[in-house]
């Protein structure tokens, strides 16, 4: 039995060094060389200062900013997760209705205008940094009014929204989305 223990310990030590030290260091090195920005959290810098990550949503409540999608975890990256409320949940129904009224009121949305689901329901992670193009366009008037933008600057904001938007093609159902932090940072420059 002693003759089997020593080789087992040696094999364990070698595999632990390979899989627990050498391989992670190799992959980290490759990631740092090939994908440095992504490997370090896709941090967005402004004037040399980190202002956020393009991958993690942030809360914007000021009327002069485009608002992010609601978060079930108060935008805490250490608590990533969903509310886990199902379609028959009275609490979910109440929350969605409250969000609908709040969003419609703040953005002066007409009663018969549909509000996109991304402004009513939180994402599965609670940290989605994107909103749909439709959600951004519904917030345009509020943001332009809060910033005192004239018609020319308002058109620049529309252009920025489309410039900053990206397309996801789910084979047949195309969707455009906008990164809220990136859009708000660009609007600050106007």
Overview of the molecule:
- The chain is an alpha+beta fold.
- The protein folds into 2 domains: 2-38; 46-188, no CATH class.
- The protein is built from 6 helices and 5 strands.
- The strands form 2 sheets. It has a 3-stranded antiparallel β-sheet with strand order 3-5-4. It has a two-stranded antiparallel ribbon with strand order 1-2.
- Helix 4 runs antiparallel to helix 5 (151-164) and helix 5 runs antiparallel to helix 6.
- It starts with a helix and ends with a helix.
Enumerate how many helices there are, as a single number: 6
What class, by secondary structure content? Answer: alpha+beta
State the share of residues found in helices, binned by percent.
Answer: 40-55%
What spatial order of strands do you see in the largest sheet? 3-5-4
Using only C-alpha atoms, the radius of gyration works out to: 23 Å
* Whole-number count of domains: 2
The beta-strand count equals 5
Q: Give average pLDDT, whole number.
A: 89
Helix and strand pattern? HHEEHEHHEEH
Low-pLDDT segments: none
Give the overall shape, derived from the CA principal axes: elongated
Strand content: 5-15%
The termini sit apart by 76 Å
């Amino acid at each position: 039995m002693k003759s089997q223990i020593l080789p087992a310990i040696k094999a364990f030590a070698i595999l632990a060094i390979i899989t627990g030290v050498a391989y992670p260091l190799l992959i980290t090195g490759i990631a740092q060389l090939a994908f440095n920005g992504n490997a370090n959290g896709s941090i967005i810098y402004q004037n040399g200062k980190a202002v956020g990550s393009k991958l993690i949503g942030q809360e914007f409540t000021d009327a002069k900013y485009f608002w992010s999608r609601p978060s079930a975890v108060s935008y805490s990256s250490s608590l990533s997760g969903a509310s886990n409320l199902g379609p028959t949940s009275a609490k979910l129904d109440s929350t969605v209705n409250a969000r609908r009224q709040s969003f419609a009121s703040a953005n002066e949305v007409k009663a018969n205008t549909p509000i996109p689901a991304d402004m009513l329901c939180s994402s599965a992670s609670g940290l989605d940094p994107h909103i749909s193009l439709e959600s951004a366009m519904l917030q345009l008037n509020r943001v332009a009014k809060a910033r005192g933008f004239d018609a020319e600057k308002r058109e620049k904001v529309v252009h920025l929204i489309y410039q900053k938007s990206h397309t996801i093609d789910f084979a047949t159902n195309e969707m455009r989305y906008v990164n809220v932090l990136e859009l708000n940072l660009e609007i600050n420059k106007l």
